[in-house]
Amino acid sequence: MNFFKQLGEFMMAGAKAHAKWEIETSNTILRSRKRLMIFALLFIPVILGGIVFAGDAGKALPDIIGGKEAYNPAFYSTFIFIVSIFVGLGAGLITGCIGAGGGFIIAPALMSAGVKGILAVGTDLFHIFAKAIMGSVIHKKLGNVSVPLAVVFLIGALFGTTAGGLINRVLYNLNPVLSDAFITSVYSLMLGFLGFYSMFDFIKVWRKGGNVSSHGEKSEGTEMGSLPKTLQSINIPPMVTFDADITPGGHKISWVFLVISGAFVGLAAGIMGVGGGFLTFPIFVYVLGVSSMTTVGTDIFQIIFTAGYGSIAQYAIYGFIFYTLAMGMLLGSLLGIQIGALVTKVVSGITIRGFYALSILAGFVNRIFALPSKLQSMDLIPLSKELCMTLSDIGMYLFFITVGGFGVWVIGTFLMNLKTLKGGEAHS
């Protein structure tokens, strides 16, 4: 039981750390005219190109590469673009409100809207990369980056990302339905664990009176046992030194553990399209024993390279990125993060935590209910097609109703409290 509690804390710490990066990146983009101009230059051609060319191009795809059905809906449609904006908006609202990763719902939402799993993953990864490049604040954090630590970690991360992208592409080439089933299963496990942990945590806090901030009461960076000390005591040369400016003499750890950690983060990024940032923070702090300050800088550093390499080398060159969707999600998330962050000033933290738990669980239900349809299509389970489609529809409706309800509540709260927010007053 204690193991699962620690694992839940591990995942939540990672989600919060990644959300902090998302919020900081959003602020950096929106507060700079130069970066807004770059966004406009990226956004307008992609959208206009999609409207003018992509529809006809999608219909004309030759059968030899699967035709329109295999890549549906990689060809442009107004509906799927609007959906992408709302998906980004919903993820941004969750990120801004709770200070924990709303990006976990992006791939499930896109898949529910009809996007093939491999396209959803590649597009999500590219959207993270575009955001990282446009809002890069690494120059502000450069003093906190341990270059030896980052370089050795990235060696593993690039291998892991390559493996993750290769797995997804091999499965897709074998059978697009198998690819969707695999990605759906991975998200079901991740969202199920994180969602139930968040709900139990919410119930525990609610029973105690709910007097916590919306961003939680536990600070990241606390020790979770003797694991970091044990790993640092294992001498497998070469040893990498870090945190010398924080601790006299610094700490040392074998390159082996850094490469393994990087490979794990990269594998998750390559398979799920989440950038890997939600894993880097807890692994560095709780497993390797790196200080929070060094971890933050290194996390930003690795996201740019891992997401960039993964999205371009593992997905873009193989045609598995839907750029119109990526721009729509970027637009929606930038807006959503700002609104969500403001709403935290006028609502209680316990309410937002409850909505967050429900949203993650809705993502879990969405994917777990979609799985029977995938398995039935491959004749792996003896259920009727009608029943499987019904389950898939139930999961889709529950997901969009829950996330949509959360979004409506947040935006409504924002609009009703505009005067309060402009006046700088805060109440719960």
Folded structure, characterized:
- The model is unreliable at 61-70 and 213-224 (pLDDT under 50).
- Helix 6 packs across helix 14.
- This protein has one domain.
- The chain has helices at residues 2-30, 33-59, 67-71, 78-98, 106-112, 117-134, 138-141, 147-174, 176-207, 227-232, 255-272, 277-288, 292-315, 323-343, 349-377, 385-416, 418-422, and strands at 239-242, 251-254.
- 48% of the residues are buried.
- It is mainly alpha-helical.
- The protein contains 17 helices and 2 strands.
- The longest helix has 32 residues, at 176-207.
- Strands 1-2 form a two-stranded antiparallel ribbon.
- Strand 1 and strand 2 form a beta hairpin.
- The chain is 74% helix and 2% strand.
